[in-house]
Write a structure and sequence with these properties.
The structure holds two protein chains of two kinds. Chain A is built from six helices and no strands. By secondary structure, chain A is mostly helical. The longest helix of chain A has 23 residues. Chain B has two domains: 116 residues; 83 residues, Alpha-Beta Plaits. In chain B, strands 1, 2, 3, 4 and 5 form a five-stranded antiparallel β-sheet that branches. Classes of the chains: A mainly alpha, B alpha+beta.
């Protein structure tokens, strides 16, 4: 059987299109996270870092926090925190530009677009 | 044996993959029906711990299509699917099953002398899910509701009135949608034994829930969702039911080591 197409044989009639796809299977099986504690940690550290990151990433956030693993919260790639930081930085830059413009003599300021 | 399993970690010879816990009285018979020679049941008091001593049982060949953006490599996906096949196969054969967290390796000797607190916890979880199956329900936004017609904005006042109408219509539509979803969730909660939220988020997802449904109430569960489908669709919401699943979402033993 193609493992990406799991047989859908509900034991009773479903209410709609019962989608039992690979994504659904992974969601169920991995929702509680992959076990990465105990002896396994020692050994898994030998695995290349990127693979380790991806595997932790798919474990649920709650599970990762339970295990004290929350490095990803500070990792812009995974947490998406980059956008918020950029907005804040943009606001700071705008304020700084306005402050500098205020110091310019009349006639040198850029007019605000209508 | 072919290529190493994706989670082949430095294993001691007595390390086993641990898949699930069932009643000791049911585990042996279920394994005979399942016919997988790599699986065995370790009896600990009232429990039958289903383990595999052979990691080559995880298929290493065959194509597997992992959807883009899932963030899961093929080896991991293959191992997870195999895990689910074992767990689901068992769940269909026994009155109660506690799936063990994917990737749990255990010391064979340690399993035989499982501590009494863990044994008792497993017994409690088995009783919780006995006679039940897990069904998933995802509620997804399918489309934006149609925007109300623009008024003839020949004046500023007309323009502002049109904008105000649009905002009000959006608020009303959102409230109606939330009410429908809440009514459905409340009705399903009365039919089921327990509800859990899954941590996965999809774009447009309004809810991602798992229900522990007593088998005799499964038809009512589906009838309830089916009855709500038309109203939900009119409000731009699609209800997707998946299952039946082994009770993954209601039996977390934590990270057993």
């Amino acid at each position: 059987m193609d493992p990406s197409v799991r047989a859908v044989v509900p034991r009773s009639a479903p209410a709609g299109p019962a989608r039992d796809t690979l994504a659904d299977v992974l969601e169920r099986v991995l929702d509680k996270g992959v076990v990465i504690v105990g002896d396994v940690v020692v050994s898994i550290l030998d695995i290349e870092l990127l693979t380790l990151k991806l595997r932790l990433f798919i474990s649920s956030a709650d599970t990762a926090r339970e295990m004290g693993l929350d490095w990803w919260r500070n990792d812009r790639f995974f947490s998406g925190g980059g956008a918020a930081d950029s907005n804040e930085e943009l606001e700071q830059l705008r304020a700084r530009v306005a402050e500098l413009e205020a110091q310019l003599p009349d006639g040198h300021r850029e007019e605000e677009p209508e | 044996m072919s290529a190493p399993a994706p989670h082949a970690i430095d294993r001691r010879p007595d390390t086993v993959w641990w898949y699930a816990v069932a009643d000791a009285s049911a585990a042996g018979e279920a394994l005979r029906h399942l016919g997988d020679p790599t699986l065995r049941a370790v009896t600990v008091g009232p429990l039958g711990l289903v383990v595999s001593t052979d990691e080559s049982a995880v298929p290493q060949d065959g194509e597997i299509r992992v959807p883009a953006g899932l963030g899961v490599d093929e080896d991991l996906a293959r191992a997870a699917v195999h895990h689910d096949e074992v767990v689901s196969g068992l769940a269909a054969l026994v009155p109660a099953l506690v799936p063990i967290r994917f990737g749990t390796l255990a010391d064979h000797q340690g399993l035989s002398t499982l501590d009494p607190a863990t044994v008792q916890h497993c017994v409690t979880l088995l009783d919780r899910v006995r006679g039940c199956e897990e069904w998933g329900l995802r509620l997804m936004r399918t489309s934006q509701e149609p925007e109300p017609e623009d008024a003839d904005a020949t004046s500023g006042a007309a323009y502002l009135a049109a904008v105000s109408d649009r905002h009000r219509a959006r608020r009303e539509a959102a409230t109606a949608r939330e009410d429908l979803v809440a009514v459905l969730q409340n009705t399903l909660a009365t039919l089921t034994k327990q509800v859990a939220r899954l941590s996965t988020r999809r774009p447009g997802q309004l809810a991602n829930l798992a229900y522990l449904v007593p088998r005799e109430r499964t038809p009512q569960f589906h009838d309830t969702v089916r009855a709500a489908q038309d109203d939900l669709r009119r409000r731009g919401v699609e209800a997707v039911v998946t299952g039946p699943w082994a009770p993954y979402s209601f039996t977390d033993l934590g990270a057993v080591t």
